[in-house]
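Working notes for the structural subgroup meeting. M.R. asked for a predicted model of this chain before we commit to crystallization trials. I am recording the input and output together here so anyone reviewing the notebook later can reproduce the run.

Input as submitted:
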Amino acid sequence: MGSVLCPPSFRCRWPGTVAFLLTAVVLSGCSSGTPDAAQAPPINVPPPDPARCVLPTEESVRSGAYPLARPLFIYVNKQSLREKPQLYQFVRYYLEHAGELANEIGYFPFGDDVRNENLKLLEQTVPEPPSGPARGDVHSDGSSTVYPVTQAVAEEFMKEHPDIRVLVAVSGTGGGFKKFVRGETDINCASRPITESEKVLCEQNGIEYVVFKVCIDAIVVAVNTENDWCDCLSFEQLREIWKPDSVVQYWSQINPAWPPEPIRLYGADTDSGTFDYFTEAIVGEARASRTDYTPSADDNVLVRGIAGDRYALGYIPYAYYVENKSSLKAVRLAPPAQHQGR
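Returned structure, recorded in token form:
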């Protein structure tokens, strides 16, 4: 087993540990081209036009050509922001530096216009910064997608403010909101907007919040580097793979020219904002998904799974793909017919 290490110029900030490249495990008794694969029905979705297939790049994401791009957010408790000097100073630092750190990590920063809008919103929310010594803890939780940015900001901030400790946890966007709506955290990192039910819980518990845009992410559909057959997928094919009543169990069901081998799926768990976004974008309904896949709120788990299995397919945030390009292959996506870009 070999490790996939961060390049020397990059400071590793991923939850858990750095991703590991697992060698494929061949189970005794397994064989290619099983009879079940021959009997499995094809999905009858034509392959996409290769000319329409798009890789996630800065150009395709910013132009809107790549169809799985989304903004990332932090939600901040207003009362805490107005009362805790350490939180106010951290949030201000976050808004001033998130762009450059997001770019270093592998996400796509917003322009100066969004940065200035964020700082103006902070000033409107807290006209008079809280007085008193800035010391103590700041509690952040939520999205594993936003985690690398928040952790990077926290590390740089604490170098300048040694009396302030920023604790950054990961429990997924939804898992983080469960704590945020009860007033247990100061900040919730989110890879999707707050839901109506979460808004209601905030109102019931007297939690007011302000939301700031952090950066732009692209969800990458990824396969193993040894996968030499799947270079492009359409939204229609992905829907057939991921919908709740999917019959897809083998690669050959997607395309008869592909191997009659089991397709092993990896994706976000149900507490993840990425799960909500991906299912709505691909299946057409948030949280509608098949359940026979390997789920995790830790994107490193997904990276390790895809990197260690030639027949794997999964979806992960862009920064986790960038950090592990040597062990993953991004699949080009053909947008749905109604996709117009930005």
